[in-house]
Automatic annotation (TrEMBL):
Family: Belongs to the glycogen phosphorylase family.
Enzyme type, top EC level: transferase
Catalytic activity annotation: [(1->4)-alpha-D-glucosyl](n) + phosphate = [(1->4)-alpha-D-glucosyl](n-1) + alpha-D-glucose 1-phosphate
EC number(s) on file: 2.4.1.1
Keywords noted in UniProt: Allosteric enzyme, Carbohydrate metabolism, Glycosyltransferase, Pyridoxal phosphate, Transferase
Protein name listed in UniProt: glycogen phosphorylase
Key word Glycosyltransferase present: yes
Main function: Phosphorylase is an important allosteric enzyme in carbohydrate metabolism. Enzymes from different sources differ in their regulatory mechanisms and in their natural substrates. However, all known phosphorylases share catalytic and structural properties.
UniProt-listed CDD domains: GT35_Glycogen_Phosphorylase-like
Pfam families: DUF3417, Phosphorylase
Organism name: Streptomyces thermoviolaceus subsp. thermoviolaceus
């Protein structure tokens, strides 16, 4: 018989052991080795069977064992020390508390998924892992962040393989009471709730679960409550599941319900209200609408509320392709807003306009979540330098008239949370050189450009460590492979060969990630015979460990997995290449730590950042990657290899894959494998070890999540907080009125004439083809018409730089010109200023007029610009050669 209901009976801990409950509920244990060691000592066997989950462990330990521990003075001393350490960590000053007092009082960080630990499976891939690392790093730094997400009752799917190697999905039901969560409750003990109005007079209710991520509270909304009908209960059933309306309701609950949850949490706990709201991808974009509604209820009109909300909002885009953005039919969005649904006091057309694709090539009948995110945020960023450039190009239609380089989307390159991903052995190796506290600070706070102490570690210790981690990975792979084959239907008698899978002394390559087509899981199979020769080389063999999940609806991705599995099933090579199903955080940690080389071969430039190679690098694993994402930014031959790409439009996709696969094989055959197996005088691979050393010393400080979060604080959060404080209700009304005035009058703004005077001694020839000397100065004089606007409303700039064959400016810089006197009788204004010729070669300039206001984050913000008509500068020397 099966139970009709399942629930967890938690043990009552003896009084001396009560701190164990507090330690289990704070997810700091997921990256704090001493806490994990303490829980392991409670019952090593049950710790292993619980998957390293303290909540599950404590739910399974017999009362007799708890009573024994309650009388064990040595254990109690350890428990007291670990509990005191957590208390100091949570309440003491950290990096943020040493910074200037103008920093934000609090930041709300919204994400559709969070990868904190395998014990809380609320993530599908890189976006969630990045969000989890962001929270952990913020905690280590003392940044007052509040995380906001959804609690999915099925999490993301568990992956198995059929006998034929086809991916199969399973959705285990998660009981929140078995997870490291507590329910947020009102003062009277009743569960705290948020609700959204639905069309037809119904409502979507959700309760709020709290996960303590060190110092950072993470609020997770759960719609599986009795007040909801069956359909509404399923809104938070699966991560990225369901159809369009299901996804829309998830994103409304995340954004709008999330803001309401933050308000509830701050009211109940006294936590400072956020001054900054950070939208991690467009899924949470509706948070801006909720905040507009809050301000509208306080008396602001829509336009003023929009300005106030934008001032304190940061938007991070993670996708380099339009297809990766959530888009909804406008009719569907309109049905969920207005008098019969949510935000009844806001005109639905104003809401739709925020997400409408009004630019060339857009589809105006679709509601684009990223477009709304950008329109609701005064500050936006991509997640690597290259991705920032790609994003500026992709969204430039929102700022017509400007070159892509000026689109106001910056970049903050992602980082990874070192204490989560670094092997304990690697940490101890560093701690022996500089001390445990300095090593911990180096991994969390960061701040240095290099870890020079790595130079003091002897080659023998580095090579021994790498061998230890590789051997541990081999054992892990065999264990998981045996379980996978048993699940696929193999009998025990068939599986003796698994004892010989992989070799602890063979060069080991890792490849693990989601399996969309652009990541090219099977590029390594492009020439199966050549790959086989690499795997079975008699002197320099390689072995490859592969893992990854395809989206349940992506049959193309599933076919790629099946192709890889079928190749790996071949008895000739199955001891050298394996596919491990059910890729997740627990498996990833072993892979990053044990592999010698981390392989990444996406189609450039479709990898926004790609952080798996960062985690591998922190463990001394070398990267072999296409120059995409973070590797394009930080690659050096000292610590890895770049796979050449064939990005040109002249190649069809098959031809491109052939070329890049051949380049990959060449690198493995001619450079990677020989370097690994080459031995120096002492019998060690000296040159390989030196690359490991440089990876740790030079890449290590760069790839830290601590570095990333500090950049967010300095470059985005703090300016956003300042803008938020400056945008009081009257300032918001004034800015909205000014923008309306400028937009209405902009068609009357023109550049009517441009003059440039060049001293005769410095310039010869016709003005149109002048030749000037480096260091000389042009005196510019410009006449502009501003209509009803005045000099306080605009900035007139000279923009100068190199010119290409078509006279397009490149590497340009802008210089503000100054108004001279008042407007003339014809209503025109005269602006003057010097333009210094600071570079040689083909050089040019133009002038332009931009809106200007002290509360704009960028003069590009309004997407308005006026440049000269062609004849305005014909005689003015627009190009100097």
């Amino acid at each position: 018989m099966k139970a009709i209901r399942r629930f967890t009976v938690r043990p009552v801990l003896p009084e001396p052991l009560r701190p164990l409950g507090e330690l289990a509920r704070n997810l700091r244990w997921s990256w704090h080795a001493e806490t994990r060691d303490l829980f392991q000592s409670v019952d090593p066997g049950r710790w292993a069977s619980s998957g390293g989950d303290p909540v599950r462990l404590l739910g399974s330990v017999p009362s007799a064992r708890l009573a024994e521990l309650a009388g064990d003075r040595r254990f109690l001393r350890r428990l007291t020390a670990v509990a005191d350490d957590l208390r100091d960590y949570v309440t003491g000053d950290r990096w943020y508390q040493t910074q200037p007092e103008d920093r934000p009082a609090a930041i709300a960080y919204f994400s559709p998924e969070f990868g904190i630990t395998a014990a809380l499976p609320q993530y599908s891939g890189g976006l969630g892992i990045l969000a989890g690392d962001h929270l952990k790093a913020a905690s280590d730094l003392g940044v007052p962040l509040i995380g906001v997400g959804l609690l999915y009752r099925h999490g993301y799917f568990r992956q198995t393989l059929s006998r034929e190697g086809w991916q199969e999905e399973h959705y285990p039901v998660l009981d929140p009471n078995e997870l490291p969560l507590t329910q947020l409750r009102e003062a009277d003990g009743s569960p705290a709730r948020v609700s959204l109005a639905l069309p037809g007079g119904t409502a979507l209710h959700a309760r709020i679960w709290l996960a303590d991520v060190g110092r950072v509270p993470l609020l997770l909304l759960d719609s599986d409550v009795e007040e909801n009908d069956l359909g509404e209960r399923g809104v938070t059933d699966r991560l990225y599941g369901g159809g369009s309306e299901h996804r829309l309701l998830q994103e409304m609950l995340l954004g709008m319900g999330g803001v309401r949850a933050v308000r509830t949490y701050c009211r109940l706990t006294g936590h400072p209200e956020p001054e900054v709201f950070h939208t991690n991808e467009g899924h949470a974009g509706f948070l801006g609408l909720e905040r507009i509604a809050e301000l509208a209820d306080a008396g602001l009109d829509f336009d003023a509320a929009l300005e106030a909300v934008r001032a304190g909002t940061v938007f991070t885009t993670h996708t380099p392709v339009p297809a990766g953005i959530d888009r909804f039919e406008q009719r569907l969005v309109a049905r969920h807003f207005g008098p019969d649904a949510e935000l009844p006091r806001i005109d639905v057309e104003r809401i739709l306009q925020l997400g409408r694709e009004t630019y060339p090539g857009g589809q105006p009948d679709l509601f684009n979540m990223a477009v709304m995110g950008l329109r609701l945020a005064q500050r936006a960023n991509g997640v690597s330098l290259l991705h920032g450039r790609v994003s500026r190009e992709m969204f430039r239609g929102l700022w017509p008239g400007f070159d892509a380089d000026e689109v106001p989307i910056t970049s903050v390159t992602n980082g990874v949370h070192a204490p989560t991903w670094v092997a304990p052995e690697v940490f101890r190796l560093g701690a022996r050189r500089i001390g445990a506290q300095r090593a911990e600070d180096a991994l969390t706070v960061g701040g240095s450009d290099r870890w020079d102490s790595v130079a003091d570690i002897p080659d023998e210790e580095i090579w021994a460590l790498r061998g230890e981690l590789r051997a541990r990975l081999v054992e892990e792979v065999r264990r998981r492979l045996w379980a996978s084959w048993r699940q696929r239907g193999a009998g025990t008698a068939e599986l003796g060969w698994i004892d010989g899978v992989l070799d602890p002394d063979v060069l080991t390559i890792g490849f693990a990630r989601r399996v969309p087509s652009y990541k090219r899981l099977t590029l390594m199979l492009r020439d199966p015979d050549r790959l086989t020769r690499l795997l079975l080389h008699p002197e320099r063999p390689v072995q490859i460990v592969v893992a990854g999940k395809a989206h349940p609806a992506d049959d193309g991705g599933k076919r790629l997995i099946q192709d890889l599995v079928r190749f790996a099933d071949d008895p000739r090579v199955r001891h050298r290449i394996v596919f491990l199903p059910d890729y997740g955080m627990a498996m990833a940690q072993k892979l990053y730590q044990g592999c010698d080389v981390w392989l990444n071969n996406p189609l450039r430039p479709l990898e926004a950042c790609g952080t798996s190679g960062m985690k591998a690098a922190l463990n001394g694993c070398l990267n072999l990657s296409v120059l995409d994402g973070w590797w394009d930014e930080w690659y050096r031959p000292d610590f890895g290899w770049a796979i050449p790409t064939a990005d040109g439009a002249c190649y069809d996709p098959d031809r491109r894959d052939d070329i890049e696969a051949a380049a990959l094989y060449d690198l493995l055959e001619q450079r990677v494998a020989p370097r690994f197996y080459e031995r120096g005088r002492g019998g060690l691979p000296d040159r390989w070890i030196e690359m490991v050393r440089r990876t740790l010393a030079q890449l290590g400080p760069k790839v830290l999540a601590g570095r990333m979060v500090r950049e967010y604080v300095d470059r985005l959060y703090t300016p956003a907080a300042h803008a938020h404080r400056a945008m009081d209700p009257q300032a918001a009304r004034d800015l909205a009125a000014w923008k309306a005035k400028v937009r209405a009058a902009w068609h009357q703004v023109s550049v009517d004439h441009v003059e440039a005077s060049v001293p005769p001694a410095e310039c010869t020839g016709a003005a149109r083809a002048a030749v000037a000397e480096l260091g000389s100065t042009l005196a510019l004089r410009v006449r502009v018409s501003l209509g009803p606007l005045g000099p306080d409303d605009v900035e007139v700039q000279a923009v100068a730089g190199r010119v290409d064959e078509e006279d397009a400016l490149t590497d340009a810089t802008a210089v503000a010109l100054k108004p001279v006197g008042e407007a003339g009788p014809d209503g025109r204004w005269v602006y003057e200023g010097p333009l210094r010729l600071d570079r040689t070669g083909p050089y040019g300039y133009t002038v332009r007029v931009l809106p200007a206001h002290r509360l704009l984050a960028s003069p590009v913000e309004l997407g308005l610009v006026t440049v000269p008509a062609r004849d305005a500068g014909e005689a003015a020397g627009v190009v100097l050669r």
